[in-house]
UniProtKB/TrEMBL annotation:
Protein name: RAB3 GTPase activating protein subunit 2 (non-catalytic)
Main location: cytoplasm
Species of provenance: Oreochromis niloticus (Nile tilapia)
Single GO MF annotation: GTPase activator activity
InterPro entries referenced in this protein's UniProt entry, alphabetically: Rab3GAP2 (IPR026059), RAB3GAP2_C (IPR029257), RAB3GAP_N (IPR032839)
Keyword Cytoplasm part of the UniProt annotation: yes
Gene Ontology CC: one annotated term: cytoplasm
Amino acid sequence: MSCSLFEFCRLQEFKTVRDFLFRNEKSEPVEEKSQTEDNELSWDTSDWESAWEGGDNKEEESTSDKKVADDAGGQGEPWLQDCVVSLSPCADLLVVAREQKAAFLSAKWRTDDSGREEMTLGVSWTGTLSTEEGECVSSTICIPLASQKRSSTGRPDWTCVVVGFTSGYVRFYTESGVLLLAQLLHEDPVLRLKCRTYEIPRHPGVTEQHEELSILYPAAMVTIDGFSLFQSLRACRNQVARAAAAGNDVIQPPPLAYKKWGLQEMDTIVDHSSVGIMTLCVFDQMKNASILGGFNASVKGSPPAMSQYVTVGSGPYTGFYYAIEGSSQPLLSHVAMAVASKLTSALFSAASGWLGWNKNKNEEEAPQKQKPKVEPATPLSIRFGLPDSRRHGESICLSPCNTLAGVTDDFGRVTLLDLARGIAIRMWKGYRDAQLGWLQVPEERSERDLSPSASLPRRHALFLIIYAPRRGILEVWAMQQGPRVGAFTVGKHCRLLYAGYRLMGVNSVTSQGWQLHTQQVCLLDPITGALRTVNIPFHLALSDKKSERAKDMHLVKKLTTLLRSRDTELDILESEARSILLDIKHPAVKKQALESLLSNKNTPVSCLVNITRALDDTLKRQEPEEVDAGLLQLCSSQLKLLQLYTDIQQLHSATDVEESAENDSLEGIEEELSRVAPTLQRYAQFTPRPSVSFAQDSPDSPLPAQAFLSQLECTEDEEVKVIRRSETEWNQLGNFLFWSCLCGKSPLHKVCYTLQQAGISPQQLLSLLLSVWLHREKEVLQKPEENVRNLHRLLVALSNMKGAVEESWDPQSISPWWQQVRTTCVQSHNAAAALLAALVTHRAAKASITSRADSKFQSEWEAVSLELEQWVVCVRQLEDVLVLQTLLLVPPPPGATGGATVQCSIKTLLEGGTGGIADSVSKWVFRQDISPERLKEILQKRGNKEADDNVEQRDEEERHEKEKSQEDTDRTAELLLALCQRFPHSLSPDFLFAHCCWEYVVQWNKDPEEGQYLCWSVEHLKMVSSPHIQQGVCTMMWSTFIVKRFSAATFLMEKVGKAPKDRLCRRDVGMGDKAMTSFLGCCVQLLNILMEADSAVEEVSAPELSIEEAWSGAEGPASIAELALEQKGVHYPLVQHHCLLASLLHAAMTFSVKVKPFSLFDSKGKNAFFRDLTTIQLMPSGDMDPGLVSVRQEFLLRVLTGWVQAIDDPSSSTPLPSSGPRAEWWPSLCLELGSLLQVNPDILRRHLVCELYSQGLDLRAEEVMLEVEDKDVLGSQLLVLTGQRLSYSLLHSQNQTQAAMELLARLPPPSARG
């Protein structure tokens, strides 16, 4: 019930607006820029400021230093202070302009994360507004125009943006930046634009004000009649639409009527306010006549109507001007007579010199060279003012009631003016650079509906809003001499936006029933982009002596202070709180105080009961007509809930506990518990240990009475309804009601009886019971037999309540009561607790159905099977989920990727589709970092031997660390085998390998630097036995993840002509150079797998996919295997063509060979690349061009040379690795590529032999030489090589004898150069 700041809108893309407006700015201080750009509105006041206010100078300097420091942050730079900002009163359009540029932000609606609709302002138009050379935007306002349609009378139709320029032009735009009309009314810069719209008179004698737009110049003021402006803007907008439709650019705007006044006898004018038409009373008329006309002045009975204008500036500080309306003769002063004599030539003169728009450049140049004729201003002398030679006014803000105005000056003062009397009635100090606004708050109707004066007009309270940017504070002051009623700490760079007008085009007829809500004052924060408004209750304007509401609010504050104090004794607290509550008169405030008391956590329950009972007794003793029914209902309901809380608390603290009856044994569940006991033990071992938490968040902490009251409410039927808010609060309430019963510490039948008598429905109690059972799973598993027995007794007790199981329930249908338990278990992620609850409920449901059948003396086998079949399926599914969850809880080995443990339930698995189970296991395989070979080894055990259902528990503490690691590995394998046994179809090897392949390629796509992920994905794909699934998965991988990066790598290598550097690879392909080499190698393997699968598809029939019977209701996305079988067949030559390119790229990256990949192919080959592999493309055929074959041959020879150079020293006997540049298969790959590229393989073999001999690898050279066909050419090559080796041996011999030198001299030159 106090002032508050409410955020109703948030600006989007505000940084974009700043970047657009300051795009060409250099990095210079904002203060220096604003000093040069603020034309006539700012002066250098440092000379006299230091002398006049020496005491405040230190504070200002420190503030200025702090501001400069803040500006260095960039984000907190007060850039908005250098801009011209205006907001539509409907808050649907914001204009931000600076110099020649402007940005329009329009309202947009979006849905937030909670699903709630919220309004934002987004950029709708940006551009340049100035057309004259050197002109800048100096002022702007947004005027919403009322709609003329009957269905939306009084609602805004569109918003006109009026912009004033330093050249004197005033231009009118639409929300989309379309220029409607432009007018040069005066040749001086436009200082301020202000608007006045129609307001419904609140009292019969108030003068009805006309709409107008006022434009202030340094020495003149122009007022445009609102009705004329409204009609002209509508006509211009319609003509623009017609011209755009007809293609005509030239539009003749309609005429516009205005008045122009020359403001005299004031040195400087910086701001103004048009107060409106006023009429003097007879006394003021006679007083003015006596003062100005003397003793012989004549006075007539009808005083003239005058328009009042108030200006601020200097010499005088504030000036008051009055312009007499109409052509009647003035009666009071010579000033008025002088004005009246010149009105006939100036009033309502038609505007001249209209400019066109939307013309071509040649048509626009002519009007710019010749400015239109400007009408002279009618002089208007000042009537009086407030002289202050040192004070300079900066701004004036007119109140909504047109009787008060706030004025700011350069001394840091805010002055409140009484415009009717022309005097200053109040002044505030210490508000330098202040921004003002007004807020008018109507009285709430509900407070005066019962009063005799309810038919009178509603009272309005007026508040002045002052924003002090130097201090970063927003204050609210009650008028006229009222106190400060609110203060908010806000940013130092905000802007206070106050329009002071509403819709234009509304009159006394169209305003009937007008309910349009407009924002009076808005605070814009440029850092967060938030638009906030101030909410002020009406009662803050009332004094304590005249308002019972204010007295009551004072008592509420006193009660709040009392409740916050912790040193007060309980007796004193209870007595004072009771007296305060009884002293409050207003029912609404008394209800608020009672709610505040009941929500206080420090107040004990006994105190709450006594105070509430005292208030209830007081209300019951009053007359029924004087008692508020809502307050009485609140008291009685809260008393009932407090009594319930006390009874439950006493039952939990009771020492006598009920003994379990003989029929409460676990006779029907013992076998089931013994069967699932090993799985429950393994599951309990893997459940995560509790982390550090606060004591108040512990489930064992007692539930406060305040939390209990907040979650329950009494209905009109005297029943208690539980309100479900958050999951945590729901669990806390269930824990308070039932956990002691589940532990066997409370008499559960008495607890259930107390809850039933309170009127809580059995369905909500069942939901609370299941919630606490599932939430405290770890404690349940510590003593499963005892807890299961207590759960069974509670379920039976709740089932016997009235309204639980319907009496008319037909056993042949599903019971809603038992279905609620099944639904909860199906949705639960606590698999062990859900399974135990299902087993208990299955037994209870079976006993209930059997008793119903026996009571009817007949056998209904269909009823038994129909209900219990649902439980059989549910228990089977929960057992499967328990085994799966146990596997998923296995912690990853040290150094593995890890990640969050996936929580699964029946619902999530069913919604995951037929591949949901395999998908969960594949994610677990990724987290465990299990290699494809290890996974294949584990799955092979599945076919060799039967895995035991009951795995022995091993003692981990007595074994060594190595044995423990091996034991963990074996246990993980056994868990996976046990899970595969439960899901023989969903976790078949092909199914699992396909999902693992897809999971690894998805993880690789997230982080392409991890090339191992893609390699293991390909390895998993190799493990798939079905060629149909292989082919489909290959096709999906290629089209979804591979081809885009593969084409990027190809084009990058084509661009640079060699193996690209790491920086280029990261920029274009998204991975480093080493990762790109591995990626290209995986592409080769993937395409080879695809070719092999395509060849084997014809020989093998497609597999038939199935799913377990218990999980046949799965609905969701198809599995990877199903999607793979739906893929189309591929075009083998096209796949081979891409595989050839991938091999060439891989070789070029591995050995850093300079090549442009597309230079190795003809035009047909180039056009076939990166096409869909399922389409048939035109492939290269026939003999290739010899030049192209020569280029291919040169490339392969370089690859062979690179491989030979990469091999280690000849003396090394270690075998070559299976991958990398030293792999054994590179020569055979080059020979295979040579056959595909039409390169003579014998040339490649001869070159390889020579390179091997040259590197000293004679044994490898001899093996390759056996395959060479043209021995003669090889012999000549080896002869030269022999001479080179002989020359090398002679030159590097330690004994260089004369005979050796002579032998070297006899060698031919090619040999001697070796």
